[in-house]
Design goal:
- The chain is 22% helix and 28% strand.
- The protein is an alpha+beta fold and 630 residues long.
- The strands form five sheets. Strands 11, 12, 16, 17, 18, 19, 20, 21, 22, 23, 24 and 25 form a twelve-stranded mixed β-sheet that branches.
- Helix 6 packs parallel to helix 9, helix 8 packs antiparallel against helix 9 and helix 9 packs parallel to helix 11.
Length: 630
């Protein structure tokens, strides 16, 4: 079972060890010497045997991801998303009965084809055991490894930010078949450590205990069958170009809605040779889940499982005209797909390594020369256990009716990080988390996700003081105004949660961020000059040419950016006051007052009775008025 560890499990450092080994763990990161360059999927295993019951406490991580098993039991998935200086490990404790057992793991690294939120140092696996059984750790025990056959990687269109999807031509590994794989000794790479003390920091991960509760795991059926058809081809783009029809449009085997509805409920269904079926399931809720399919026979068949949020008005994955989300007739599905290629074996289990998201599930099955039996399709929901714990009873029942939709949206965005969208980007943007964190505060007592986000943003700080706008991310993106929203997040956390020490520890980072803006003040006007990067504020139609950047927000002096800095300075002054830092509070209050005065002087337009967006007083927006009022 998962356990929580708030400090290093190996805190008894050896003072007699060499200076750069005193803070290392008695375990090594290991890898597969034959794996080559990512992307690849590997397996690791350690067969062992005990004469008496043993209680083991151990800690597991991987670069990039792992699924860990003890015999036939899955112990967990991980590691929690982080960055190299916050590389998380999960902790477990289990009692093992006498006899032979096997720890084994499926570990994968997608390299350049990974999701943008997935960071990496060097592919590898870590299993570190405490106490008398420390010798079972990777790098000490005889851990074995092998590349897993049957995994290929496909274009993730339209969700290009989420990393490649999977084309799988071999059943998912299971304990009884591990002996058939070409095992070789795992190779040591680097010592595991939670404090980096070394000649250099290259290819190092600072291990930190996992911060989150285990993600929810709940099995769902595929839902209601809405459409059954027999397209003339299984080619993806051709199928996507065929508009949907409600009900069944074909006859013969595996053709009726009742046939497929029975399959959705748990019955088997067999497709004859040389048959194509396209089946659309309505999950009747938005779901983030790991799909799993069990099949027999059907060598040479193609199974494509696609997920979509809604039907679209045109066969274009970028088409945003979706209409009423309940309606499918005449619409098109262009979803994110995984593909399974059965090898003819019985009870073959196919499961992608990462979850999918959406409301509609499209199953495309094209058999070759053999019949194919579909035994089961299950969807394992995965999300953070965020629930509606508060009460909302408005007099207007229409508001009450929207509540389940709003809660579900927050739940599906809550995973190992707070994502902007689970379907398209799966990234943690400061602007999105600012709003979602307020919702977390009012609906539940959950703090872990927000605290993790605030800490990771602090870890993202660039040398000049700005924060990255989305993090974790292996691609650096700078939206300077988002650094100011992070200060807003600190103040919200202080007022919504009684945890002043957490906020106080982050104030040095806040000061560094504000100094980054100070370096962009004009010595002539005293106004903020537009910082470098993408200074997006909102998708205003008149700002489309500059990708949501307000007037003079690319270069020059933007009223909106200046007023946001004034607002952030007032928040900073309040935070410093609450922390008992009177000198800092006075400094930021003075700066806020000075900048407000020069901003009002530069942007107030007496004729319009409004604050202009630009120095020339030619453009005006609600955004600038609202920010100035704040």
């Amino acid at each position: 079972m998962r356990i929580f560890s708030s400090q290093s499990p190996f805190s008894e450092h050896d003072p007699a060890a060499r200076w750069n080994e005193r803070f290392t763990w008695p375990a090594w990161w290991v890898d597969n010497p034959a794996a080559g360059t990512p992307p690849f999927v590997c397996a690791y295993r350690l067969p062992l045997s005990f004469d008496s019951p043993q209680t083991l406490r151990f800690h597991v991580s991987a670069d990039e991801r792992y699924i860990l098993y003890l015999d036939d039991q899955r112990l967990g998935r991980g590691p929690e998303l982080g960055d190299p200086m916050n590389w998380f490990y999960e902790s477990f404790e289990t009692t093992i009965t006498p006899g032979a057992h096997t720890f084994w793991a499926v570990v994968w690294s997608l390299g350049e084809r990974r999701a943008e939120a997935q960071m990496s140092v060097q592919p590898g696996f870590l299993f570190a055991v405490e106490g008398e059984q420390v010798g079972l750790s990777t790098g000490l025990a005889d851990w074995q490894t092998c590349p897993l056959p049957g995994w290929d990687f496909i274009d993730p269109m339209p969700a290009v930010w989420r990393g490649d999807r999977f084309r799988i031509s071999a059943p998912f590994p299971e304990l009884g078949r591990l002996h058939t794989l070409p095992w070789q000794p795992a190779r040591r790479t680097t010592r595991a450590m939670d404090r980096i003390v070394d000649w250099d920091l290259h290819r190092k991960r600072r291990l930190q205990p996992a911060t989150l509760l285990p993600l929810l795991s709940r099995i769902h059926r595929p839902g209601k069958v809405r459409s059954v058809s027999a397209p003339p081809t299984s080619e993806r783009s051709a199928v996507q170009a065929i508009p949907l029809v409600e009900g069944s449009t074909v006859g013969g085997a595996a053709a009726s809605l009742d046939d497929w509805q029975a399959f959705a409920a748990g019955a088997e269904i067999t497709l004859p040779p040389h048959c194509i079926r396209r089946v659309v399931f309505d999950l009747q809720d938005y779901l983030v889940a790991y799909p799993e399919m069990i099949v027999s026979g059907g060598a040479g068949a193609l199974i494509r499982l696609s997920w979509e949020e809604s039907g679209r008005a045109a066969p274009d994955p970028w088409n945003t005209h979706k209409g009423h989300r309940d309606e499918l007739a005449g619409k098109y599905l262009t979803g994110l797909a995984d593909e399974y290629l059965p090898d003819g074996s019985a009870q073959a289990r196919f499961a992608p390594l990462w979850w999918q998201a959406g409301r509609y599930l499209e199953l495309l099955v094209a058999t070759a020369g053999e019949p194919l039996t579909l035994h089961a399709l299950a969807l394992e929901e995965t999300r953070y256990p965020l629930e509606m714990e508060s009460d909302f009873q408005p007099a207007d029942t229409r508001l009450r009716e929207t509540l389940p939709l709003l809660v579900r949206g927050l739940q599906t965005n809550a995973n190992e990080i707070i994502v902007d969208t689970p379907y398209y980007e799966e990234q943690q943007y400061t602007g999105d988390v600012l709003v979602q964190s307020l919702c977390h505060y009012v609906m539940s007592g959950v703090n872990r996700l927000v605290r993790k986000a605030i800490r990771l943003y602090d870890s993202s700080r660039l040398p000049d003081g700005f924060l990255q706008s989305r993090y974790p991310s292996h691609k650096t993106q700078l939206i300077a105004p988002y650094s100011l929203w992070w200060i807003h997040m600190l103040r919200d956390y202080l007022y919504w949660r009684d945890d002043p020490d957490f906020v106080r520890a982050l104030l040095p980072g806040m000061r560094a961020t504000l100094e980054a803006f100070r370096r962009h003040l004009s010595t002539h006007s005293g106004l903020l000059q537009a910082p470098y990067g993408w200074n997006i504020m909102d998708w205003v139609p008149d700002w489309d040419r500059d990708a949501g950047v307000p007037p003079d927000g690319l270069a020059g002096e933007s009223a909106l950016l200046n007023w946001q800095l004034v607002y952030a300075l007032t928040l900073a002054a309040d935070l410093e006051t609450r922390a008992g830092e009177a000198a800092f509070a006075a400094h930021y209050a003075q700066w806020a007052g000075d900048l407000a005065r020069v901003s009002f002087s530069a942007f107030w337009d007496e004729t319009q009775g409004l604050l202009a967006d630009d120095r020339a007083h030619t453009l005006f927006s609600e955004h600038t008025q609202v920010m100035a009022v704040l």
